[in-house]
Design a protein that fits this description.
This protein is an alpha+beta fold and about 270 residues long. The protein has 9 helices and 8 strands. The protein has 2 domains: about 10-70, Winged helix-like DNA-binding domain superfamily/Winged helix DNA-binding domain (Arc Repressor Mutant, subunit A, Orthogonal Bundle), CATH 1.10.10; about 80-260, 2-Layer Sandwich (Beta-Lactamase). The strands form 2 sheets. The protein has a 6-stranded antiparallel β-sheet, sandwiched between helices. Strands 1-2 form a two-stranded antiparallel sheet.
């Protein structure tokens, strides 16, 4: 197991520990955590004990620990209050129902230098894409990610490409040209870039006030593409993306109004 640098102070020591818990490695002993972090068992045990007390970890079988119920509570808050999730919930359901073939509608956003799906809607018979809720994905492959990457310009784009490891000049030039095409068309279309046999269409979704850079995409089997009216699908995707942005603006206006009322009341 690869050891990582362990910051013994502040929030980072908890973050680095919690980041070790994944779908494929969902439970750990204190010894295993200490080995992975390259830190004394006593120090890691103290952090584990504090996280258990706060509900972020809980005891599992064989002296192991797993993620705790505090994350379930936090997830409910996100589902009920996150502007992108709330604004997209009904839209992705309607969009998926309108597609003539089995499909998955994905709502994803920028997370650091990667992309994470925040909500999806699957219809019967659809193929499960690599993009699934909560799973981190690369930002330089697939329509879902490219529609997000295309929103970055200048230094922000250069930083994302550098963080992703796109340093080869030829690869960077090809990707830059592709992003220009996406910006011009207003939509990203890829086949087989993430999942073999699947084609994806994605449009940008953004709200500067909330600091959200996201995308809305439709993914279906490439074999079914001939049964689709592409113009109709594109129009539906674009209008759905615009609808999510409009709803986020309404939520933002409400937040601003509440803050204004609060400030007004405190000044009286």
């Amino acid at each position: 197991m690869i050891k990582s640098a362990f910051d013994p102070t502040g929030f980072t020591r908890y973050q680095q520990l919690l980041d070790l818990f994944t779908v494929s490695a969902s439970s750990w002993t204190v010894d295993e955590l200490a080995h992975a972090l390259g830190k004394p068992k006593s120090s890691v045990y103290r952090s584990v004990r504090e996280l258990v007390a706060a509900g972020y970890l809980e005891s599992a079988a064989s002296a192991k620990y797993r993620l705790g119920p505090a994350f379930i509570v936090a997830n409910r808050v996100i589902e009920k209050t996150d502007p992108l999730v709330v604004s997209g919930a009904a839209v992705i359901h309607s969009l998926a129902a309108a597609v003539a073939v089995p499909c998955v509608v994905v709502l994803a956003r920028l997370y650091g230098s990667q992309v994470v799906c925040v909500a999806d809607e699957r219809t019967a018979g659809s193929h499960a894409p690599a993009f699934e809720r909560g799973r981190l994905m690369p930002i330089d492959r697939g329509a879902t990610s490219l529609a997000i990457l295309a929103q970055a310009r200048g230094k922000a784009l250069a930083n994302l490409l550098s963080a992703t490891g796109v340093t080869d000049s030829e690869r960077s030039a090809v990707l830059t040209d592709k992003l220009k095409e996406i910006r011009k068309a207003g939509i990203a279309v890829t086949t087989d870039e993430v999942d073999p046999g699947l084609t994806g269409w994605a449009v940008p979704v953004t709200h500067k006030g909330f600091g959200i850079t996201a995308s809305l995409s439709i993914v279906c089997s490439t074999d079914d593409v001939t049964d689709l009216n592409i113009n109709e699908l594109t129009a539906g995707l674009l209008s759905s993306g615009a609808l999510i942005e409009k709803h986020m603006q309404l939520v933002f206006d409400e937040v601003v109004q509440v803050q204004m009322n609060t400030n007004r009341a405190s000044n009286q």
